[in-house]
């Protein structure tokens, strides 16, 4: 089971929170889910923080009652997905002395087997262009520094590593990445860099939109694997610290793909 849930939240009043408020929020949500934050080298949960228009200073973030904020949680294993599915936030969410009204919930549910069957085993005509949005700061760990660039190899390595960690079907390793890197180009980007607070330090990440392109002459199987991993990015996020609020990724699935979304 794979799940991506998001809730629309509205502050009851102007909420002024510390820049690292997301760390307290994710801890609070893990407690409500009954999940441990420690013990997993590759986290089976991705978390977005509060995404929306807010006023930021060097120390604080101000959330405004006239705006709606989105909170997203995704599960990459059966136990984590079931915990998210059963999570009831109630009518309001309170943390750090602030209160947010909980609105509509939307979710997408699928499975590893379903994704693999529909995007590879059935040998569909693959999409050759992918429009992706990175809604929270996204970065990659490179030689003890954070690299805030959407390089195709790093994107697909991030998604492939998580797929191979949790999925029942192993896709391949660095040989597959070599083929993907050769086939896929960054066609367009509109990104900016920003800092993301992590405990007592910061990570530099990028925000914005990109387009990836696959040439028509590419082996269909490589194109199908690329399609699978891009779809999976909607659940697993991208890059480092996805459990703490980094790497929220949005791929607008073409209309011909399965729609497994539900509104609650």
Short key terms for the protein model shown above:
single chain, alpha+beta, six-stranded antiparallel sheet, four-stranded antiparallel sheet
Distance separating the two termini:
18 Å
Main sheet? 6 strands, antiparallel
Mean pLDDT: 95
Shape: globular
List the helices and strands in order.
EEHEEEEHEEHEEEHHEEHEE
Tally of DSSP helical segments: 6
Strand tally: 15
Can you give the helix content as a percent range? 25-40%
Query: Which spans have pLDDT < 50 for at least 5 consecutive residues?
Result: none
- What is the radius of gyration computed over CA atoms, rounded to a whole number of angstroms? 18 Å
Strand-pairing-aware structural class? alpha+beta
Q: Approximately how much beta-strand content do the residues carry?
A: 35-45%
Topology summary:
Blueprint: E1 2-11, E2 15-18, H1 21-33, E3 45-51, E4 54-56, E5 60-63, E6 69-75, H2 78-85, E7 92-95, E8 98-110, H3 112-121, E9 129-138, E10 140-142, E11 145-147, H4 152-166, H5 174-183, E12 185-198, E13 201-213, H6 220-236, E14 249-251, E15 261-263
Antiparallel strand pairs: 1-6, 1-8, 2-5, 3-6, 4-5, 7-8, 8-15, 9-13, 9-14, 10-11, 12-13
């Amino acid at each position: 089971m794979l799940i991506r849930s998001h809730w629309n939240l509205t502050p009851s009043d102007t909420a002024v929170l510390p820049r690292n408020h997301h760390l307290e929020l994710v801890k609070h949500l893990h407690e409500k889910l009954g999940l441990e934050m420690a013990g997993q080298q590759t986290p089976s949960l991705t978390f977005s923080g509060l995404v929306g228009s807010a006023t930021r200073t060097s120390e604080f973030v101000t959330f405004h009652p006239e705006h709606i904020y989105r909170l997203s949680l995704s599960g990459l294993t059966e136990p984590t997905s079931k915990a998210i599915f059963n999570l009831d936030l109630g009518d309001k969410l309170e943390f750090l002395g602030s209160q947010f009204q909980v609105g509509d919930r939307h979710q997408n549910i699928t499975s590893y087997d379903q994704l693999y069957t529909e995007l590879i085993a059935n040998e569909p005509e693959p999409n050759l262009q992918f429009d992706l949005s990175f809604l929270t700061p996204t970065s990659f760990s490179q030689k003890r520094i954070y690299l805030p660039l959407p390089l195709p190899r790093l994107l697909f390595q991030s998604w492939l590593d998580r797929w191979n960690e949790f999925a029942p079907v192993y896709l391949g390793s660095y040989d597959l990445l070599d083929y993907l890197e050769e086939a896929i180009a960054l066609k367009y980007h509109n990104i900016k860099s920003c800092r993301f607070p992590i405990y007592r330090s910061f990570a530099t990440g990028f925000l914005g939109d990109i387009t990836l392109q696959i040439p028509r002459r590419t082996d269909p199987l490589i194109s199908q694997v690329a399609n699978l991993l891009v779809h999976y990015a909607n659940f697993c996020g991208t890059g480092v610290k996805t459990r703490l609020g980094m790497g929220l990724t949005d791929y607008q699935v073409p209309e011909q793909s399965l729609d497994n979304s539900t509104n609650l």
